[in-house]
Amino acid sequence: xxxxxxxxxxxxxxxxxxxxxxxxxxxxxxxxxxxxxxxxxxxxxxxxxxxxxxxxxxxxxxxxxxxxxxxxxxxxxxxxxxxxxxxxxxxxxxxxxxxxxxxxxxxxxxxxxxxxxxxxxxxxxxxxxxxxxxxxxxxxxxxxxxxxxxxxxxxxxxxxxxxxxxxxxxxxxxxxxxxxxxxxxxxxxxxxxxxxxxxxxxxxxxxxxxxxxxxxxxxxxxxxxxxxxxxxxxxxxxxxxxxx
Length: 244
Hints:
- By secondary structure, this protein is an alpha+beta fold.
- It has two domains: 13-78, no CATH class; 85-220, no CATH class.
- Helices cover 53% and strands 9% of the residues.
- The protein has helices spanning 18-34, 38-50, 54-57, 62-76, 110-119, 126-133, 157-160, 165-193, 198-211, 217-231, and strands at residues 85-89, 96-101, 134-141, 144-147.
- Helix 8 (165-193) packs antiparallel against helix 9 (198-211).
- The relative contact order is 0.16.
- Mean pLDDT is 76; it is low at 181-187, 208-221 and 236-244.
């Protein structure tokens, strides 16, 4: 009797949804607490990213099982540059809507900043942060565009769970790097104006770190969780296993 199973292996990070990655990250965190094995992580990976039920995973030929894992791991390890726009089907399942990144961060409103600050530091709420950063493009001319006015993240938060993972992580990494640059600029600028001893310099840097949430506490925990999830990506028993 021939075994027929539907296995939808992602071809790139762009084909993985943010919501699925949130599920995977939650599984990894719980697995670390429960000291689960890599085999458990592999099974959950196939369930979440490939749509394969756990009971069916045991029926897969070993080469196919390992090939699917290898391909998924490769996708999750891709580089994630900032993408300023992407298309996604609207909530009614009709036309594809183009979403754009906030054109000018300097023009961010206080409400946008508060909502972003309260959501981007937790992977479980990252979809809400993306609903602050990305909104439907309402006017476009060449490379310039205008996005929908901000009325809270609730309108698009659930939809953002379906956004491509590479777009979400690209925005996260962008903000982390931006925060580091802002912190370094602020620190260097102040220290140049002051004659300080080595100990005074360390004390001042510590104080700036505590004050500058953009470069430290705002994103550090989320990046650590993301790094933890990626580091728990299971290694394969076969270096050259394929899907074939």
